[in-house]
């Protein structure tokens, strides 16, 4: 009986500590942003998709064409390369790894896959996230 009592107490303590773990909250918030981005992309809404990025001239995006600086230019590139909902297709992210980098940064590595009526494309990404003004945003994106 005492053993069962201590098992229940240990479980409750672990549950409370896990619920208060900022890393779990942070990664949950990051995943929520990525889910919003998937949904926005699948609606054909590039502007809403970009809400997951840092709205700054210091945002960096590295892709097959090289390095792009700035939120506005990154949005312009998305609109140029994916001009309509059909071209955007259906996006799915798969997270492979999440790693905390200091107090306010995370590295998220994963795969992206787009299914369109005519074809499928995909690749990998590494995203550096930073908490700015209480919001998790991507400050650097390397997608291939």
Short characterization:
This protein is an alpha+beta fold and 144 residues long. It is built from 5 helices and 6 strands.
Give a structural overview.
The chain is an alpha+beta fold and 144 residues long. The chain has one domain: Nuclear Transport Factor 2, Chain: A. The chain has five helices and six strands. Strands 2-1-6-5-4-3 form a six-stranded mixed sheet, covered by helices on one side. The longest helix is centred in the N-terminal third of the chain and has 21 residues, at 22-42. It is globular and about 60 Å long. The protein starts with a helix and ends with a strand.
Search tags:
144 residues; alpha+beta; Nuclear Transport Factor 2, Chain: A; six-stranded mixed β-sheet; 5 helices; 6 strands; 41% helix
Write the layout of secondary structure elements.
Blueprint: H1 2-20, H2 22-42, H3 46-49, E1 60-63, E2 66-69, H4 71-81, H5 85-88, E3 90-100, E4 105-115, E5 120-132, E6 135-143
Parallel strand pairs: 1-6
Antiparallel strand pairs: 1-2, 3-4, 4-5, 5-6
Largest sheet: 6 strands, mixed
Query: Element order, helices and strands?
Result: HHHEEHHEEEE
Instruction: Estimate the helix proportion, in percent.
Output: 40-55%
How many structurally independent domains?
A: 1
Count of distinct strands? 6
CATH topology: Nuclear Transport Factor 2, Chain: A
Strand order of the largest sheet: 2-1-6-5-4-3
CATH architecture grouping: Roll
Radius of gyration: 19 Å
The secondary structure category is alpha+beta
**Anisotropy-based shape:** globular
Count up the helices. 5
Strand proportion, as a percent range, falls in 35-45%
pLDDT < 50 runs, ≥5 residues: 5-19
CA-CA gap between termini: 57 Å
Query: What is the level 1 CATH name?
Result: Alpha Beta
Mean pLDDT: 89
């Amino acid at each position: 009986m005492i053993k069962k009592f201590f098992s229940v107490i240990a479980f409750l303590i672990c549950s409370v500590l896990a619920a208060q773990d900022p890393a779990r909250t942070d990664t949950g918030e990051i995943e929520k942003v990525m889910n919003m981005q998937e949904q926005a992309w699948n609606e054909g809404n590039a502007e809403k998709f970009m809400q997951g990025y840092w709205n700054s001239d210091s945002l960096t995006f590295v892709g097959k064409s090289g390095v792009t600086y700035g939120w506005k230019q990154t949005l312009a590139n998305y609109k140029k390369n994916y001009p309509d909902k059909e071209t955007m297709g259906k996006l799915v992210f798969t997270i492979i790894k999440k790693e905390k980098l200091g107090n306010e940064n995370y590295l998220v590595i994963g795969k992206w896959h787009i299914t369109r009526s005519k074809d499928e494309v995909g690749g990998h990404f590494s995203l550096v996230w930073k908490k700015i003004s209480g919001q998790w945003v991507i400050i650097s994106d390397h997608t291939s």
